[in-house]
Amino acid sequence: MVVKKKLVLASQSPRRRSLLKQIGLDFEVRESGIPEDFEDDKSPSENVRALAMRKAAAVAEQFTNAIVIGADTTVVLDKKIFGKPRDEEDAVKMLESLSGRTHQVYTGFALYDRPSNRSVSGSEKTDVTFRTLKRDEIIEYVKSGSPMDKAGAYGIQDDYGAVFVDRIEGCFYNVVGFPLTNFYTTFHRFQEQLGE
Predict the structure, then answer these.
(1) Domain count, the chain
(2) Distance between CA atoms of 11 and 27, rounded to whole angstroms?
(3) Beta bridge partners of residue 114, listed in sequence order
(4) Which residues, including other chains, have CB under 8 Å from residue 185's CB and lie 6 or more apart?
(5) Residue 174: inside a domain, yes or no?
(6) Buried/exposed 23-47: b ≥16 CB within 10 Å, e otherwise
(7) Which of 46, 65, 120, 149 is the most exposed place for a label (fewest CB within 10 A)?
(8) Residue 96 and residue 153 in contact, taking contact as beta carbons nearer than 8 Å
(9) Catalytic residue chosen out of the listed positions 26, 37, 40, 72
(10) What's the CATH code of the domain at 79?
(11) Could you tell me if residue 77 is inside a domain?
(12) Phi-psi category of residue 99: left, alpha or beta, with phi > 0 → left and psi -120 to 50 → alpha
C-alpha cells in the first residue's frame, strides 16, 4: 500500500503493530492516553468506533501533517462487555464465563487526517466459540500473564489462548485486534477522498 504522508498508530498494542507491518505499512507509534470507557446507550460497535476515533483525534493534535490510526477491541457475551482484566481473579472469571460459549469480538478503527481534520471510522464483528475449559488450564494460562493486556483475557494468535477457541465465524484478524481487510479497503478510499 502506498501511503503519501506520515502514518501514526495511536496504540501500544504489539498485535496491531505486527498486523499493520504485515501489510507493508511504515508508521510511528504514539499512545493516546484515552480511557477505554463505554457509553451505556451505545451498541458495542458504536462504542469501539467512538473510542477508536477519540484515540486517533487525541494523537492527531500532536501532528501537523499525518494520518493517525486509532483502534479499540472488546469482547461481548450476553450483552456484557469484557475489556482487559483488572487482575488475575478477573481474568479467571472472564475465561470461566466464555468457556463452552459463543461470544462476539468487536474492533473499531478510525483514520484521522491532519491538517484537513477529515476522518472516517469502521468496525468489524466476529463470533468466537470456546470449547469447554478446565479450571486448571485457565489458572495456568492466567498465571503466564499473557491474558492481562487482552480484551476478554485471551489471545487467539500467539499463545496458549489459541487452543481455547473451537471455531470462529468472521474475520480472524479482527479477533487478533485489527480487521485487516476492512481497514485496508477503508484506508484506500480515505486516501482517494483526501486526494493523496
Answers:
(1) 1
(2) 11
(3) 66
(4) none
(5) yes
(6) eebebeebebebebebeeeeebbbb
(7) 65
(8) no
(9) 72
(10) 3.90.950.10
(11) yes
(12) beta
Using CB atoms within 10 Å of the CB of residue 176, give its burial: 0 to 12 exposed, 13 to 18 middle, 19+ buried. buried
How far apart are alpha carbons 142 and 46 in whole angstroms? 30
> CA-to-CA distance for 92 and 147, rounded, in angstroms?
10
Is 37 annotated as catalytic?
A: no
Residue 13 counted as domain residue: yes
Structural domain of 45? 6-194
d(CA 26, CA 107): 21
Helix (H, G, I), strand (E, B) or coil at 185: helix
Structural contact between residues 130 and 82, judged by C-beta atoms closer than 8 angstroms: no
pLDDT in tens, the chain (196 residues): 788 899 999 998 888 999 999 999 999 999 998 888 888 889 999 999 999 999 999 999 999 999 999 999 999 999 899 988 999 999 999 999 999 999 999 999 999 999 999 999 999 999 999 999 999 999 999 999 989 988 899 988 867 788 999 999 999 999 998 999 999 999 999 999 998 6
- Which is it for strands 66-77 and 6-9: parallel, antiparallel or unpaired? parallel
